[in-house]
Write a structure and sequence with these properties.
- Chain A is mainly alpha-helical and about 400 residues long.
- Chain B is mostly helical and about 475 residues long.
- Chain B is about 70% helix and about 0% strand.
- Chain B is globular, with a radius of gyration of 24 Å.
- The relative contact order of chain B is 0.18.
- With about 200 residues, chain C is of the alpha+beta class.
- In chain C, about 40% of the residues lie in helices and about 15% in strands.
- The longest helix of chain C has 28 residues.
- Classes of the chains: A mainly alpha (about 400), B mainly alpha (about 475), C alpha+beta (about 200).
- At the B-C interface, helix 1, helix 6, helix 7, helix 8 and helix 16 of B face helix 1, strand 2, helix 2, helix 3 and helix 4 of C.
Chain lengths: ~400, ~475, ~200
Amino acid sequence: MIALREKFKIPKKLKAIAALLLIIGILTILSGFFTKGLSTDNAVSAQFWGVLMYNTIFWTLICNASMFFVCFTTLAMGGWQASFRRVPEAISCMVPIFGVLTFLILFYVVAIDHNYHIYGWLNTDVVQHDEVLKGKQGFLNVKFYLIWTVLTLALWSLLGWRMRVLSSEADKGPLLGEKGKKYIWKNTVTASLFVVWFALTVGSTVPWFWMMSIDPHWYSSMYSWYTFASSFVSGLSLIALWVVYLKNNNYLELTNQEHLHDLGKFIFAFSIFWTYLWFAQFMLIWYANIPDEVVYFKHRMQGAYRGIFFLNLIINFVFPILLLMSNDSKRKYNWIAFMATFIILGHWMDFYQMVMGSLSKQEVSLSWFDFGVLAFFVGVMIYGVAFALTKKPLIAKYNPFLKESVIHHS
Amino acid sequence: MQVKYESQLREPLIYGKKTYHDLTEDIIRPIEAKPTRLWYIGFFVAVALLCFGIFSVYRDVTYGIGQWNLNKSVGWGWDITNFVWWVGIGHAGTLISAILLLFRQGWRTGVNRAAEAMTIFAVMCAGQFPVWHMGRVWMGFFVLPYINTRGPVWPNFNSPLLWDVFAISTYLTVSLLFWYSGLIPDMATVRDRAKTKFRKFFYGITSFGWTGSAKHWQRHEALSLVLAGLSTPLVLSVHTIVSFDFATSVVPGWHSTIFPPYFVAGAIFSGFAMVQTLMLVVRKVFALEDYITIGHIEAMNKVIILTGSIVGVAYCTELFIAYYSQNKYEQYYFGFSSGNLFSPYGWVFYSLMFCNVIAPQIFWFRKMRRNIYVTFFLSIIINCGMWFERFWIIVPALFRDYLPSSWSVYYAPTIWEIGFYLGTFGLFFTCFFLFAKYFPIIALFEVKHILKTTGESYKDQVTNIEEEAVEKFAQENLHHH
Amino acid sequence: MKKKKFVVLPFQEEAKLFDAVKMAKEDGYKIHDVYTPFPVHGLDKALGLKESSLHKAGFYYGLTGLSVAFFYIGWIFNFDWPHNYGGKPHFSFPAWIPIMFELTVLFSAVGMTYTFCWLCKIAPGVKKHHFHPRATDDLLVLVIECTAHTNAEEVESKFKKNGAIDTSIQYAEIGWWWGTYNDDTIPFTKDNSSIVVA
């Protein structure tokens, strides 16, 4: 009999790293608040709120992508991920926490901030003289924005919580025959509700609200799916990182290279999918060259953001396609961990340019502050996920597909 | 050797108490038996349709495409609609064989062969439309970029229409290779049990001398995996490029950045509907209910509800962005303030919404997903709906130009446009009937490969594994790594 | 081609085949090949076959396609016949990506399939010796080549005890030639009821 180490104990080293990151993060945010947030120069204070905003949105979306991973593998009756399913579940525990942060920041930006740092459409003086913005008021208004944001975050958290509760059943006793079918059925129902809500939020409305409306005149019907792809591939990378971490600490006995290989394939495939959406959006706008639309890419490709624009493609497309193409590369724990870190950073930078590229068009504002805030969010994430991992056995012993996962061959 | 195990909670993919030899018998039987009367009737109807199509095309070449009702400002009508529709249908086969192979979905094996064949025939049909739309089809070679003495005159590599030439021909070639490389081992099976002279000759040649050597299987597996890996982005690229035909333009209703993935989702959606239509008939006619089970049908219905909903989200996104952009022309196309929704083509929009978005929602119910009649009926509805979608995209975007003086009269097809379309049905079904008669319609070696894991009678034998503690199971089976 | 002597050992179950392969290797017999009606997972490893490098060939074919498309279009649009299309630059790279992608896939797929056929020596009209007609139906056929030290009868009886059925000793040409299948034996005309199929 193989002995399974069920309980995760947070290693001291991890705690120390998280604490360090948190301290750096909090100090950065505090000093940022005094040097930037309180600045009377609107461009500088916009930077403070913009950085907080894209970080919190990014981390909420990628943690929520973990729950999406759990749900769609449930719907597809996937067996292979059963051996490490507790990892994405634990990551998704961060959705309510980051969700609250997101809400607080967005609430400030939309309802309290009277300088309209982020969203030009809040400024009624401007809107009055702008026929286009006037026409958008049915959608772009504070009430709808806030209600929809609350609803979005609440339902993600609620349905995610429900999925995790259902998953605990697989710790209690064998799920054979009718019992197993019932377990699958209940999971399927909640997972499909989650996926539907996911499509109505990440797949459509939420990126329009949170990010696309920063450029209130600009529009692209691809925007939401693009945001989804970006957050999903980083979400997968985050799952892979935690799996590798646990594996290196001798947990997850039933997970091996075969599972890692498949995670690697997912990261590889969705990196290409992201590139596909990136290309489709860019190409159509570049090709048609309609002034309304090219404003988005003008300064990103030919202005101050030129470097970031191409770096974005290199990190998120060229590197994954070349460095994750061979089979061997997807089977090495540390290589996957390295690539995953890289890809998360790459997409973090993508979110940076999506938000900050619209707020500060003349110059790239990337600075100590961005990285400090990132440290804060990483610190919170490490603490939160590690804590969530201690709450439940790392392997749901009676998951009906666990044995398939054990003998899984990629 | 790896333990043959699959959770008993999964439905078996092969019903009955079957041995490897039974599979061979069941699947090869239609090839070795005389065709039924139904087959002959179907075949001749298909050939008749094909002849009508050929005649329509003959008229098209002789009199020019003026015999179609295309005119200012509707320059693309039925034939481009049909082109996109057929290409879309040609997407499910590769999706089933490639993407589901990569995702290791076992149910793919029951339907992949027929779906791949269907893909190839559908792409062949699709290719007809742009070719004959050229009018002076004898100049068709102008699209080929070879070093020439005409100036030199090069094709425009910046044009989506030329990308189409490359995309569709690559897609046809790669699908053919993929399909045929999978067929070779099965052709060898037919060959090795052939009794008639014709069969020995035909399958002797088409099986390429396959023996089933271990090394060959290893290479075969490597080949199919890489071809699957290549086909997956390829299948996306093909419909993406078809969508570029529209989206790179500045025509309201056509220029939308979501078009590429939305076209791809729509293509898979319509492709699966067509697979359902055909497989429901095939499993009945050839008595293959044990291999194409209700479980297979349910799985395909799940793909249909998924892709149908993606398409639904895309429709709503389009409508929303038309509102959100506050662009007058976009809004006109989508019928805000007496635009196309209230135009003579309004009914197309309502039909497509009903067929593609509302009707498939019935598949949220398990009972409906597993009902053959409902599935069949819906597959037809979706096929029609997806045709309406393409028509909606193409014609209403064109028929009212910026100047009311250049507004078109109501565009309706002539008999020759309809004839051409019917002709491609003839081509499609002629090919499909021949395929069903002379080729194994189920990938025999793949079904054999999964038999002992997912076969009904074999699954009954793993109860002891199912009840075993996972630690013990892992102990017994993990050391193989 | 010279004829060689083979012992043909068909099995009905994969487990038995794996045991037999292991046994044959341990006893030092020369395994000619194993013929199966479907790919048997792990058999290549058991036989000690090297991994196929077909996919690497595919990568290079793809690279060739990519370069051909890029340089050909680039040459035409920038050197041979620079042309203004809708005000786009001559070097309009984004617009070339679709064709570059398609040719990558086309070259890779076609090249790999040809290489596959070449390596396996298969083509329309090719004929090879078939050791057992049911190797494409339901039997997993292990073929041992007889060397000077091999006692064929002994091998046959030894493996029969370990589950081989319908065994035989054959003199056959290996390799391939152009030919037809007209004179082959018909596997299922004789009564096979004595063979128990598990």
